[in-house]
């Protein structure tokens, strides 16, 4: 799955969305919840410019 989100300079998640679903609603919801629970994320380094950063990251779950 791919999760897209925007991040402000302090590491706060401003928006989040599933770009590519896992095919399972519960896993998609868990990926979004992961971002909420991880806040604040580390702030971006100063050499990365912009007030808001747009990121898309892969998320993989391994189930036993």
Automatic annotation (TrEMBL):
GO terms for biological process: transmembrane transport. It is found in: Membrane. Residues 1-64 form the TonB C-terminal domain. The keyword Membrane applies. Pfam families: TonB_2. Keywords: Membrane, Transmembrane, Transmembrane helix. InterPro entries: TonB/TolA_C, TonB_C. Coiled coil: none annotated. It is a single-pass membrane protein. It comes from the Bacteria. PROSITE patterns: TONB_CTD. GO terms for cellular component: membrane. This is TonB C-terminal domain-containing protein. It comes from Magnetospirillum gryphiswaldense.
């Amino acid at each position: 799955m791919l999760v897209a989100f925007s991040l402000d300079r302090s590491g706060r998640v401003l928006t989040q969305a599933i770009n590519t679903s896992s095919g399972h609603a519960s896993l998609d919801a868990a990926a979004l919840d992961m971002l909420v629970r991880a806040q604040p994320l580390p702030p971006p380094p100063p050499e990365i410019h912009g007030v808001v950063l747009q990121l898309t990251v892969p998320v993989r779950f391994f189930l036993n």
